[in-house]
Design goal:
The protein is α/β, with parallel strands linked by helices and about 250 residues long. It contains eight helices and twelve strands. The strands form three sheets. It has a five-stranded parallel beta sheet with strand order 2-1-3-4-5, with helices on both faces. A four-stranded antiparallel beta sheet has the order 6-7-8-9, with helices on one face.
Length: about 250
């Protein structure tokens, strides 16, 4: 959505979620009053409880003090932009799923958002249905039940209950999306998962075919799992997808 107008909030068919939305609190941080109110109205029509703020400083305070279940942050905000807010909350150990709104279409700008700790991004202008789908996807991933059994591939161990990952004696610090992606791959070691399957499972919807989000997160996982000069465990199968396996 562009700053000068209501940014393409096209009302569409609202889709229900398996868990009552009224139980969820969603932070909306947007400095444009008309856009903020439009997003707030859309989410409230879906029975979310919305915490609406107008700048990055207020967003940081809300994320720290009120601990919403998900956050929708505009990148361009006064006092602290969306990227700064993302970096700071991750530095504080806050794992709230974050959706960034950006008017920039360049891949580098989107990667910067993911690098800052955001879980997803949405380019303006966007449709209401897509915004709602992405919020639902963040909440599903945050509240979905997980298998209690530890997953192991070589010396890489993932504990779903504690949400801890280690390789040998080294603990890995992963973001929520990195953890979810690694868990999915480790649930089926040696099995190649297609890009489409991964996008649908992790993000909850189909990305545009040229999206680089998955490639970015695979790169993060490789850097973190191979940080101590360990052998590669996360492999690309060109033209198909990705797999976790011992060589």
């Amino acid at each position: 959505m562009g700053k000068s107008q209501s940014r393409g909030l096209a009302v569409g068919t609202f889709l229900s979620m398996e868990i009552p939305q009224s139980t969820f609190r969603v932070l909306v941080a947007e400095d444009d009053p008309s856009v903020r109110k439009a997003i707030q109205r859309v989410l409230e029509l879906e029975n979310y409880h919305v915490i609406a703020v107008h700048d990055g400083a207020a967003a940081l305070e809300a994320l720290t003090q009120q601990k919403p279940d998900a956050a929708v942050l505009d990148v361009m905000m006064p006092f602290a932009d969306g990227l700064t807010v993302c970096r700071e909350v991750r530095h504080r150990g806050i794992s709230t799923p974050i959706l960034l709104l950006t008017a920039r279409h360049e891949v580098g700008d989107r990667v910067a958002g993911l690098d800052a700790g955001a879980d997803d991004y949405l380019v303006k202008p966007f449709a209401v249905d897509e915004l709602l789908a992405r919020v639902r996807a963040l909440l599903r991933r945050n509240f979905s039940p997980t298998n209690a059994a530890q997953l192991r591939v070589g010396d890489l161990i993932l504990d779903p209950m504690r949400r801890e990952v280690s390789r040998g004696q080294r603990q890995l610090q992963l973001t929520k999306t990195e953890f979810d992606l690694l868990e999915l791959l480790m649930q089926q070691p040696g099995i190649v998962l297609s890009r489409e399957k991964i996008y649908e499972t992790i993000w909850g919807y189909d990305f545009e075919t040229h999206s680089k989000s998955l490639d970015v997160y695979i790169g993060y996982l490789r850097r973190k799992t191979e940080e101590g000069n360990e052998s590669r465990l996360v492999y690309t199968v060109r033209g198909i997808g990705y797999v976790v396996r011992e060589k």
